[in-house]
Amino acid sequence: MHRDRLKNRSGNIVLSLLYFILIVSCAPTQSKNSTPYVEPSEDILRIGVSTSAPPLIYKQGKDIVGLEAELAREFADYLGKSVRFIELDWQDQIPALLNNRIDIIMSGMSITKMRQIRIAFSEPYFRTGQMALIRRKDADRYPHGYYSIFGWTLRMEIGVVKGTTGESFVKENFGRAKKIISYQTSKEAAKALAGGEIDMVIHDAPIILMLAAKNESKGLVPLPSLLTEEYLAWGVRKNDVELLQSANSFIKTYKKDSRLHEIVNRWIPLSK
Q1: By CB neighbour count within 10 A (0-12 exposed, 13-18 middle, 19+ buried), where does 124 fall?
Q2: Burial class for 24, CB neighbours closer than 10 Å (0-12, 13-18, 19+)
Q3: β-pairing, 230-236 with 126-128?
Q4: Cα separations (Å) of 34 from 54, 71, 88, 194?
Q5: Rounded CA separation 211/260 (Å)
Q6: CB atoms inside a 10 Å sphere around CB 213
Q7: What pLDDT score was predicted for residue 270?
Q8: CA distance 102 to 232
Q9: Count of other CB atoms within 10 angstroms of residue 249
């Protein structure tokens, strides 16, 4: 009888463990940097952000700040809604939008043809492009921007941020590089550059300028010329026509009365 009890108890434990594993394996996965799910609401604007791109969007202590954060608060106020920032890894932004976990992406996203297949974009609010971050001692190598980089390609190790326009640009234009290394964040890429692990970082111009300012003492400087011409805008679902129209109306209004320029210039003083 004692053996039967042990046998039954062991069987129950095994079944419990199997049940637990089944629950865990079937549960929806969530990015380590994501905010818990927020129900859609007429009173809340759920904004997808990846807070690793200063000065566009980043954290200062516990607060989410930057150009996109200020515009997000202004836009929500324009709509008469409250803001709810939903933190996501960059590669999860579009899937989260399509799955209705967020209402809009306001996270320094540039308009590309591939992204336009999946989502709709507002009118652009800022002209930008890709820019290179290098070590000051190497500046003489690149007097002609893009063409100088192209000339050194075979001998270069280039850092990019995973899943970004910069990564696609480097693979298309400098695919013959000795090595292309993808990092999770621009901060990691800059650290590798300062440490001599790579020769250059190519990323969005506002972020490169911020990295140069933060790492000036480490000898990092930007190449002044843009490598591409791109436009930042906000992403919405294609069937969310009302929100898209509201976003375009907001941008048009803020451009007309110069408030947009004032906000952009506060975060990116070099903008024109």
Answers
A1: middle
A2: exposed
A3: antiparallel
A4: 18, 21, 4, 29
A5: 24
A6: 12
A7: 65
A8: 19
A9: 13
Separation between Cα atoms, residue 172 and residue 14, nearest integer Å: 52
| 25 Cβ contact list (under 8 Å, min separation 6) | none
Q: Are 223 and 134 in contact (CB under 8 A)?
A: yes
Looking at this protein, which amino acid is placed at residue 18? L
Confidence tier at 30 by pLDDT (50, 70, 90):
very low
- Find where tokens 């990323």 sit: 203
With beta carbons less than 8 A apart as the criterion, state whether 108 and 206 touch. Answer: yes
Cα 26 to Cα 201: distance, rounded to the nearest angstrom: 39
The pLDDT of residue 271 is 59
For residue range 206-248, what is the model confidence (pLDDT) as tens digits?
A: 999 999 999 999 999 999 999 999 999 999 999 999 999 999 9
Rounded to two decimals, what is the model's pTM? 0.79
Do residues 50 and 89 touch, judged by C-beta distance below 8 A?
yes
Q: In the 8-state DSSP scheme, what is residue 215?
A: T
Which is it for strands 157-161 and 200-204: parallel, antiparallel or unpaired?
A: parallel
Domains of the chain as residue ranges with CATH: 44-127+231-267 (3.40.190.10), 130-222 (3.40.190.10)
The answer on pLDDT for 158 being more than 80 is yes
Chain CA centroid to CA 235, Å: 12
